[in-house]
Design brief:
- The complex is a heterodimer of chains A (about 1100) and B (about 325).
- Chain A is built from eight helices and 80 strands.
- The longest helix of chain A is centred in the C-terminal third of the chain and has 12 residues, at about 1040-1050.
- Among the domains of chain B are: about 1-135, Sandwich (Jelly Rolls); about 180-200 and about 260-320, Bacteriophage T4, Gp27, baseplate hub, domain 3 (Elongation Factor Tu (Ef-tu), domain 3, Beta Barrel).
- Chain B is about 10% helix and about 50% strand.
- Chain B is built from three helices and 23 strands.
- In chain B, the strands form five sheets. In chain B, strands 2, 3, 4, 5, 9 and 10 form a six-stranded antiparallel β-sheet that branches.
- In chain B, a hairpin with a 2-residue loop joins strand 22 (about 290-305) and strand 23.
- The longest helix of chain B is centred in the C-terminal third of the chain and has 15 residues, at about 245-260.
- Classes of the chains: A mainly beta (about 1100), B mainly beta (about 325).
- Chains A and B meet through helix 1, strand 1, strand 19, strand 20 and strand 29 of A and strand 1, strand 5, strand 6, strand 7 and strand 8 of B.
- Strand 34 (about 450-455) of chain A pairs antiparallel with strand 12 (about 145) of chain B.
Chain lengths: ~1100, ~325
């Protein structure tokens, strides 16, 4: 019931006679201008300019009685100086202090409050105090003093008091708002406004100027900050002040103005009559882009949600207007091009200009609207500027009481229709009025697709995979890229492997390894590294082929001919599928020589590099490497050569799996008496197991908890967030004795922060909580039956500029679970369980540790896991090292027992061991006396799974044909009494390498198991991951029906009230007392 | 009738004192996340704590008297300020907010909501001053709402409230009022020219409602059973997950009220608003019959023309 006076109530309810009337007050409801007064200085930007915004701020100076703009003019050298622009004057005033102009960073957005100017200069924020009287007289010598204000970096400043302000600056690649209180203390928002796929930099002008699209106001006991985010929306946060008006607490970032293919560029924000106003430019982008730029004056009652109703439009002039109240007038000014007029109802309320209309006949209801006829015979209202559809109005009913006519507000309304009629001698004027709120919700159409996403949460007790789902691909483990030249080369027969090559002098021959997808899950994508290291292994000599077993023709090659130079080849593909071949440049050579060592002809012997290494310039981040190869370039004479392999240690690839199973996590029933009925477990080694959660579908800020247990030495497990795909996410993890936060990019793990925590042990149920709040990550761990430690007390990490973009793809931000059993490992050239040596396949470099696990982590004896089969080993052969790399692969050419005279150099020369030996296409023209033991003790391994210890090498292998000595100048002969008896083949690759020795199956099956080339060998330590539960919640605020109605009504320009709520002003509550909420 | 879906949204403010907590007590039965502690009434406490001179807001969740979870959140600075708290409980989740910052969340293994959710605030370990206390009537959770370009706010509102029988009417000021069942002031009818009461059953009337929503349930209205008899009706509220039973009960209550559709004409009374309770006590001319009625006003038509100042009202019986 409307509240009335007793007099009015009596007049309504008591007398038999009754008389009433009605009136309407229609208020000025709109500002619109398409022309303006132009007092702009020469440095003002033209209409439609797309240049960086002019640094300026506006204020109404009561002393002068005009609005004043403080701007920064930039000269041709990039230096700036302050300039005052005064309403009505086209002469900019360049203020001076003691005759000197005031320099300012032309990229900073200055601020003005009272008679103080805030600006950035010479690595600090300064405050200058000016004399308004002198300024009003356009006297440049109006600056009284200049002092320091803050040492924070340049950006945008919004003074909210004479000695307090809000600053926006770039902090570690993203935007940080900070409140600088009256005691100069800095109160930074704990989170930052982050463009997830761009790292902002203070040295980048565009990034600094982007800070100008912001604002801040102080009202009551709170400060509100606003920022046009990278996506075009306006984000806001509130700093609730304590009673000392210094301390306080920041809210989360909320959306003040949403977006969808649109941008709202803040000009400025101010508060008037407890209402918030935000002046800015709205326009559409991408597919909806046009030349139309709308200057809007948005408003809000709560500072959090702004109305975008149709009367917020004030101009289509494409300038960056700022707005300021000048008494009851409002000025819109862009570098002193301005429109100034009296405010509207939305600004001034019922103090706005209005017209009163006496209503003759009025009828209707609040649900259907009211029709009111107006006396029109004098055509009084026909041309009234306020009477228009959409005009805010007030419908009142007057009742004649004992004290005279008394009015009661019947309804706030909006004029929805005006009917004017003309007949001879008759004029008609009829209004159709709608309740204000109903009019707003019926006519307000949203200028964008709007999605209000509230908090999503899930508690998954992992009874099935209905929520958590695997995003791990079918790929095998990742490893550093290396490949040989086998199988893609033209070979005489498919039964045979890669033979040596020869070409004439001054010839260039390209050899490509296999297409990378022949052995990897996908092509590797280049990151933004400056260079790519490529190592080329092989040998080369001068001369023609020996012709073995035939006696070849005389070699016409000059004996001083050089051997070949090796160059690296890359075939890369860009995003459009365009492929290009990149050849290394001699200037990119990082090894000592571009040729391998030359031992033949002896006269032409020269030093060389093994491998030949290049640091090639990166052809472009994002490009895919299709295949790699070697370009062999001969010098003046013929050459014979053998390309072994190419290694790219800086590029990781996911190999096509050889192992039996790569899918790790599976649901298992737990034994009775355990904590839960089911769990997710994994024992697969070497492959990260990644589960994404269906809910929250996307979470920028999140809490993600897991109840987990791990076993073994090499397991890490924990929640993940900001996941784009299986190769890109942020991870919080625990493992034995430590906890950490890591970044996964392109499948590669980079530890951001790790610390020892000796309390974390295998076999215990832990709760692990990983969270993110606008660039700040935290990780806590506790035993399952304990309470959480203080949030942030164990591990927090603030995202750094050096970390790059926080997201790989700005789309959906997954949360999920991660588990990785990552024992030390190497790949084998092949192993048969009947043998006792497990050889190491080069390139032996773990893609995460970037060193040899075999060399650094494998003990001299222990237990290994190959394809899930456990073996013990008792020795470790470390013949080769990083500086003396393993050799191969070479084609196996001969498997024989060599007796005299062949086991000596011809003519009863140096005598070798003799007996069983293999010949391979490894050539070095070295003397037996000095070099026969060069490879003694190294492991000779074939990809048939055979391996033995080499004993003696006959580098100058020879045979006789028709009684004549024939030198086999493409091969060498390697003797060993340990060569196993087997059916050797020329299709076998042979490596000379490191390996584990004394290997035996722990549980012999009786059948020989063959582990093929490339199979991973892991240290075994009973590792296992057990996930008992998973909980995740997004950081969005919960939506209730109430909160949504409130938000949508505000956007529409009205307000939701909820009369069914229980409300209490509260009071002092004692122990034992209570407030019943109903 | 209890349900796994429900909601409770409570706001309050207080100036914290170390060691003292505000405790929200409910009759929602909850089981902790991993079901290791016996179920009990859900209680949530909020307090300030100081650790190493830094202040944190600490939330604790109890099932009965058993603490099942606690977590704190740093407020930022060493402050002494009023905390604006929002506790939102829905389905199996609870969230806590402090000064517009999301500071706490927890999930229960299960939560059972009674048909009448009781809630109260109390203080432990001393005295605290609470202010701005409210409990929302429309407290069902909505995860997301989508509004297309061409949609007006009216349709956006409809997509928020879905099939819930929420009454929406324009307030006298520039506002929209939303409620399930709240009423306003009592006003005595006067200068009544005409009174009409139409007694008629309507399609929504039921004593025995079968409710289909995300789950299934039943809504009983004993008043309808008493006044009309057994009427079974199906309420297909397929869009709803929470609040469906309440919605069906509201449909039943309103249908019973509308069984008596009352309209009357009286002298213009500009005080009257929709949802006011109009007390009618008339003596009919001629028979001198005393008509006593009490209605919830649903519609008010006014007319001021040619010396005629009249209000036409319609409403449903207030029962």
């Amino acid at each position: 019931m409307r509240q009335t006076t007793q007099t009015l109530e009596n007049a309504i309810t008591i007398p038999e006679s009754f008389r009433a009337t009605a009136k309407l007050t229609a208020y000025k409801s709109r500002i619109y201008f398409d022309t303006y007064i132009n007092n702009a200085p020469v440095f003002a930007l033209a209409e439609g300019s797309t240049a960086y915004p002019t640094p300026e701020a506006i204020i109404y100076d009561e002393t002068i009685g005009k609005f004043v703009t403080i701007a920064i003019e930039e000269d041709d050298y990039g230096d700036g100086q302050l300039a005052f622009l005064i309403e009505g004057s086209s002469n900019p005033i360049y203020p001076t202090l003691e005759g000197n102009s005031i320099a300012a960073d032309p990229r900073c957005r200055p601020g003005i409050f009272g008679n103080r100017i805030f600006y950035y200069d010479n690595n600090e924020w300064k405050v200058a105090i000016y004399d308004s009287v002198l300024l009003g007289a356009e006297n440049p010598a109006c600056i009284n003093s200049v002092g320091s204000f803050s040492s924070l970096p340049t950006g945008a400043i919004y003074p909210i008091g004479i000695n307090e302000a809000v600053l926006f600056y770039i902090d570690e690649g993203s935007v940080r708002p900070v409140f600088i209180a009256s005691d100069a203390t800095e109160h930074k928002h704990p989170g930052r406004l982050i463009n997830p796929i761009v790292v902002l930099s203070e040295v980048n002008d565009a990034d600094v100027y982007a800070l100008h699209y912001s604002g801040a106001v102080k009202t009551g006991a709170a400060i509100y900050i606003y920022f046009t985010a990278h996506d075009g929306s306006v984000k806001t946060a509130k700093y609730k002040l304590a009673t000392n008006e210094i301390d306080g607490s920041w809210s989360d970032y909320l959306v003040a103005v949403p977006e969808d293919l649109s941008i709202f560029e803040i000009g400025n924000v101010f508060v008037h009559n407890d209402h918030f106003f935000m002046c800015g430019k709205f326009y559409r982008k991408e597919d909806f882009e046009s030349n139309t730029k709308y200057t809007l004056l948005l408003w809000s009652d709560d500072g959090k949600t702004f109305s975008i109703d149709r009367r917020t439009l004030v101009s289509l002039v494409d300038l960056r207007f700022l707005a300021a109240m000048c008494g009851d007038e409002i000025a819109f000014s862009a570098s002193n091009r301005y429109n100034k007029e009296i405010g509207t109802y939305r600004i001034l309320g019922e103090a706005a200009p209005s017209v009163n209309i006496t209503l003759d006949n009025t009828s209707g209801s609040a649900s259907a609207g009211w029709t009111a006829k107006v006396k029109a015979s004098n055509e009084l209202y026909l041309d009234n500027e306020f009477l228009d559809t959409g005009t805010f109005s007030k419908l009142e009913i007057g009742v004649y009481t004992a004290s005279g006519l008394e009015w009661i507000k019947y309804h706030d309304v909006v004029i929805a229709r005006i009917t004017k009629s003309f007949e001879d001698g008759i004029r008609g004027y009829e209004l159709f009025l709608m309740p204000d709120a109903l009019w707003h919700i019926s006519v307000m159409t949203h200028p964008f697709y709007m999605e209000v996403q509230g908090k999503q949460a899930i508690l998954d007790k992992v009874k099935d995979f209905s929520n958590l789902y695997s995003v791990s691909s079918d790929a095998g483990p990742s490893w550093t890229l290396s490949c040989d030249f086998w199988s893609k080369e033209a070979v005489p027969s498919s039964l045979y492997g890669l033979e040596y090559k020869c070409h004439a002098g001054n010839t260039t021959t390209d050899h490509w390894c296999n297409d990378i997808k022949d052995f990897c899950q996908d092509y590797p994508v280049l990151d933004d590294s400056a260079t790519i290291e490529v190592r080329i292994y092989g040998w080369s000599r001068a001369g023609i082929e020996s012709g073995t077993p035939e006696s070849g023709p005389p070699d016409p090659t000059p004996t001083n001919s050089p051997n070949d130079d090796f160059y690296a080849l890359l075939l890369v593909e860009d995003e459009d599928g365009e492929q290009s071949t990149i050849v290394s440049l001699i200037g990119e050579l990082s090894s000592a020589h571009s040729n391998p060592p030359q031992t033949y002809f002896p006269e032409g012997a020269r030093e060389g590099s093994y491998p030949v290494t290049y640091l090639m310039a990166n052809p472009g981040a994002g490009k895919r490497v299709i295949k790699v190869g070697a370009r062999i370039v001969s010098g003046s004479g013929n050459t014979v050569y053998y390309p072994e392999r190419v290694e790219l240690p800086g590029i990781a690839v996911e190999l096509i799996p050889i192992e039996a199973s790569t899918t790790g996590f599976e649901i298992v029933d737990l034994p009775l008496g355990t904590l839960h009925q089911t769990a997710i477990t994994n024992t697969i080694k070497g492959i990260p197991q990644i589960l994404f959660s269906q809910r929250p579908f996307s979470a920028w800020n999140f809490d993600c908890d897991m109840r987990v247990q791990f076993k073994g030495e090499y397991t890490s497990v924990g929640p993940l967030g900001l996941g784009s795909n299986k190769d890109n996410f942020i991870l919080g993890y625990i493992s034995k004795g430590k906890m950490g936060i890591a970044k996964i990019r392109g499948g590669q793990k980079t530890i951001l922060l790790e610390q020892a925590n000796g309390g974390i042990a295998a076999g215990i149920d832990y709760d692990v909580r990983f969270w993110h709040r606008d660039g700040l990550f935290g990780l806590e761990v506790k035993k399952f039956n304990e309470v959480w430690p203080t949030r942030g007390s164990q591990l927090t990490y603030s995202w750094q500029e050096a970390d790059g973009t926080i997201l790989a793809v700005d789309d959906i931000f997954h949360v999920g679970a991660y588990g990785f059993i990552d024992p030390p490992r190497f790949r084998t050239t092949g192993f048969r369980s009947s043998q006792s040596i497990v050889p190491v396949l080069p390139l032996d470099m773990d893609d995460t540790s970037l060193d040899s696990d075999f060399g650094t982590d494998f003990p001299t004896s222990g237990t290994i896991d190959i394809d899930g089969i456990k073996y013990s080993y008792s020795g470790k052969n470390m013949f080769f090292s990083a500086s003396n790399p393993p050799l191969g692969p070479f084609q196996l050419r001969n498997y024989s027992d060599w007796q005299s005279p062949f086991c000596s150099d011809p003519g009863h020369g140096y005598a070798y061991q003799g007996g069983m030996a293999i010949e391979i296409y490894l050539f070095k023209w070295l003397d037996g006396e000095t070099h026969s033991d060069d490879l003694a003790g190294a492991i000779v391994a074939t990809n048939a799974g055979m391996a033995w210890t080499n004993q003696n090498t006959q580098w100058k292998a020879w045979i006789t044909t028709v009684g004549q000595v024939v030198w086999a100048r493409e091969r060498s002969r390697h003797y060993s009494a340990y060569i196993p008896d087997y059916h050797a083949s020329c299709s076998e690759k042979v490596y000379i390498t490191n390996g584990l020795t004394g290997v035996a199956a722990i549980e012999a099956s009786g059948e020989e198991v063959i582990h093929s080339e490339g199979t991973f060998v892991y240290i075994h330590s009973e590792d296992e991951i057990i996930i008992d539960g998973f909980y995740a919640a997004s950081g969005d605020h919960d939506n209730s029906i109430s909160s949504l109605l409130d938000k949508f009504c505000r956007v529409a320009g009205t307000m939701a009230t909820l009369p069914g709520d229980f409300r209490s002003a509260g009071g002092t509550i004692d122990s034992g007392g209570e407030v019943v909420l109903q | 009738m209890s349900a796994e879906h429900g909601g409770l949204e409570v706001f309050f403010s207080f100036i914290p004192v170390i060691g003292r907590a505000v405790l929200l007590t409910t009759n929602i039965q909850v089981l902790d996340a991993y079901a290791t502690i016996a179920a009990g009434d859900l209680k949530v406490s909020v307090q300030m704590e100081t650790i190493d001179a830094t202040q944190y807001v600490l939330f604790k969740t109890y099932a009965g008297n058993s603490l099942i979870d606690q977590s704190n959140f740093q407020l930022g600075y060493n402050v002494n300020l009023e905390l604006d708290i929002r506790i939102f409980i829905y389905d199996q989740y609870v969230s806590g907010y402090c000064n517009d910052r999301c500071v706490y969340d927890y999930a229960f293994s299960s939560a059972v909501y009674p048909s009448a959710i009781l809630a109260s605030l109390s203080v432990t370990n001393g005295v605290l001053v609470l202010s701005n206390i409210s409990r929302k009537e429309l407290d069902d959770q909505r995860e997301a709402v989508f509004v297309d370009y061409e949609a007006n706010t009216e349709s956006a509102i409809q997509s928020i409230i879905q099939q819930r029988p929420i009454e929406m009417n324009a307030g006298v000021n520039r506002e929209l009022e939303f409620t399930y069942s709240s009423t306003k002031d009592s006003v005595t009818a006067h200068h009544v020219k005409r009174y009409e009461n139409v007694l008629e059953d309507n399609l929504q009337l039921s004593s025995d409602g079968i409710v289909y929503y995300e789950d299934v349930g039943i809504a009983i209205n004993e008043d309808t059973a008493e006044q009309v008899g057994l009427i079974t009706r199906m309420y297909r509220l397929s869009e709803l997950s929470s609040g469906a039973i309440s919605a069906a009960e509201k449909y039943q209550r309103t249908a019973l009220q509308k069984r008596n559709a009352v309209s009357l004409d009286m002298r213009l009374d500009p005080r009257l608003e929709v949802r006011d309770i109009l007390d009618i006590n008339l003596i009919a001319a001629g028979t001198q019959r005393n008509i006593v009625d009490n209605i919830i006003v649903e519609e008010i038509q006014i007319r001021l023309e040619d010396g005629n100042y009249r209000t036409s009202l319609s409403g449903r019986k207030n029962q």
